[in-house]
Design goal:
about 10% helix; about 45% strand; globular; mainly beta
Length: about 400
């Protein structure tokens, strides 16, 4: 009897989703699994300067495993209500490597930070553009992903060195409590403006402690152009009361700015892309006495070349961490370079195989490590890191 009820419940759920999709609601997802090997990692314990390697089955190498529901409803007059909610899940188990170092446990949902926390927004869409409210990807991350041949995935991801990446210090992939407006496209141009009441994990109620008594706020402005083979844009954001450094008065009253210039041209036989970004601010990372902040810079050039039923990928990027950087500890100044190659072979519109290899060359003080969409390791200062992955992704 219980088995019969379970079968009925499953088919009822499938029927409900089918009806919902017909009414403008779409259920979607990605499951991705592959073998990955990494070197030049910080071990869970050991002598200073010692490195370790890791080999395992990872979920979400090309794209993090996810499930989502999105939809729209016509309201009349050319206006629609729209929404998107998306959660991560751990396709190969809960013990996949987490955010800092090999011994750290993975997040419960492996990506996004919680249930339906990859995306969670609702809004209105019409001739006026799109207005959204909720938790959403930062435009800085979207621009990095669009300029990256690896799409911010695989072992060749520019997130290994970029400012929004796990090793870059800023690490704001998504913004909370965000209002975002996207203008209608005019001759290929559009503008995206956003304001976040809580861009970091800190809430909107000031804390009693001096070092976190002011609430961070973030606004950003992005201008995009896309027409035929050409795409380009410029981005600027400003965070007030940033939490990375503290002023002489013991308050996090400083500002931090992030700017980007990016572009791509599709020649048909190859698509070339480039990105340049810079972060600057008032206070050095970790300071408690108002030490003036230096800059962080990152640039990337890449290529995507159609080959057979797939695409060959290649990129080169470099991160430069200034002395008294606004995003990295003073001991981490220097530069790191990444070389990456890969290939994605399409078995169908939804399923593909992939292979990628990347190598990071660190200077004496930098400690960047090769990562994936869901493997996050710590590197070792002055030691190179590499990563290779083979896998399969299914989107539905």
């Amino acid at each position: 009897m219980k088995i019969r009820l379970l079968v009925v419940a499953i088919f009822a759920g499938i029927s409900t989703f089918a009806s919902a999709e017909a009414a403008g609601v779409q259920f979607y997802g990605v499951i991705d699994a592959g073998l990955a090997h990494f070197t030049g990692l910080a071990p869970s314990s050991g002598a200073p300067g010692q490195t370790a390697s890791s080999t395992g089955l990872s979920g979400g190498i090309q794209t993090p495993d996810l499930l989502g529901v999105k939809g729209s409803e016509e309201l009349g007059g050319g206006t629609s209500a729209v929404f998107d909610v998306e959660t991560g899940f751990c396709g190969v188990g809960l013990n996949q490597d987490g955010y800092v170092g090999q011994s750290s446990p993975a997040q419960t949902y492996c990506t996004g930070g919680g249930f339906m926390q990859r995306l969670a927004w609702v809004g209105l869409k019409g001739r006026f553009g799109v207005l959204k409210a909720g938790r959403m990807y930062s435009m800085a991350l979207i621009n990095e992903a669009n300029a990256d041949p690896f799409g911010w995935g695989l072992t060749g991801s520019n997130g290994n060195l970029s400012l929004t990446g796990a090793g870059g210090g800023y690490n704001i992939l998504r913004t909370n409590q965000t209002l975002e407006y996207t203008s209608p496209a005019q001759s290929g141009f559009k503008i995206i403006a956003s304001y976040s009441f809580a861009p970091t994990s800190v809430g909107t109620v000031p804390s009693g402690s001096a070092s976190s008594s002011l609430v961070p706020r973030l606004w950003s402005l992005d201008g995009d152009y896309e027409n035929g083979p050409v795409s380009a844009g410029i981005y600027y954001s400003r965070m007030s009361n940033e939490p990375y450094g503290v002023g002489a008065a013991g308050l996090n009253d400083g500002t931090l700015t992030l700017s980007q210039i990016y572009g791509a041209y599709d020649f048909g036989f190859a698509k070339l892309s480039a990105l340049l970004e810079r972060a600057s601010g008032e206070y050095a990372d970790g300071t408690t006495a108002g030490t003036s902040g230096g800059s962080n810079k990152y640039w990337l050039v890449g290529a995507s070349i159609p080959v057979g039923a797939g695409v060959a990928l290649a990129s080169f990027g470099e991160a430069n961490v200034g002395v008294d950087s606004v995003l990295m500890p003073a001991s981490a100044h220097g530069n790191a370079k990444q070389y990456a190659i890969g290939y994605v072979y399409n078995l169908s519109k939804q399923v593909n195989l992939y292979a990628s290899y990347a190598r990071i060359i660190n200077s004496a003080n930098t400690s960047f490590a090769v990562l994936t969409g869901t493997d996050y390791f710590a590197g070792v200062a002055g030691k190179d890191s590499s990563g290779v992955a083979l896998g399969i992704r299914d989107s539905f």
